[in-house]
Amino acid sequence: MSPVKAYKNNEFLMSDAARGVRILCEYVEPERRFRQTDVRNTVAFFGSARVRAGQGSDGRDWYAEAANLAEKLAAWTHDAHELRERFFVCTGGGPGIMEAAHAGGARVDSQLNVGLNISLPFEQHLNPYVDDAHAYQFHYFFMRKFWLVKLARGAVFFPGGFGTLDELFELLTLMQTGKVVNIPILLYGREFWEGLVDFPRLAERGLISPEDVSLFRYCDDVDAAFEILRAELRPHPPESEGLR
């Protein structure tokens, strides 16, 4: 029996020694598919996977508001831009706010939805509003977050938990340190966000620069959020996409 080639040796590929190979696959394979499908510009929607339609302890239906904002964005870019300059609705691909954004995008064209799903023991499954051509499955959180940021030309953060906060602070840090170009970042739901994080206090204590507080804005309604995105979204220039 002839020896098995390394790239066909599944035992090796799933081993600790080949972790670098698996990480590289989660960079190269998505990049190839994004290029094939002309996905160059996205607006990333973040928020809790636990939100359900009609639910909200504070009286807000965050699911409906995320869906309505994504629908307005999808309708605008569908009519205003050629394929290579369109802004796709990109989320982590799962339930909750992620599903809501894709439900809204699908009201216009499900081909405008991009879902970057991740394998988890609970909560996470690919929502039904993402077509196979634009559905991705990740194992490594940091590679999934890399792609959520790399093509993003805007980001909207709805109320969420640890994962949403992790994604928000990573993006703010990347912008603060010049690792990504500045994009509009909207914190949707002023009362929620101001009650959760005291950003001005960080500046008052000298822990961030005063101008860092201007890296994001609060929004409280769909129309205001959409108008900011419509006014400020710009497609990636050729050969210059997101993370540096």
Automatic annotation (TrEMBL):
Signal peptide: none annotated. Its EC number is 3.2.2.4. It catalyses: AMP + H2O = D-ribose 5-phosphate + adenine. InterPro entries: LOG_fam, LOG_family_nucleotidases. GO terms for molecular function: AMP nucleosidase activity. Transmembrane segments: none annotated. It holds the Pfam family Lysine_decarbox. One of its GO terms (cellular component) is cytosol. PANTHER family: CYTOKININ RIBOSIDE 5'-MONOPHOSPHATE PHOSPHORIBOHYDROLASE (PTHR43393), LYSINE DECARBOXYLASE-LIKE PROTEIN (PTHR43393:SF3). This is AMP nucleosidase. It comes from Solimonas terrae.
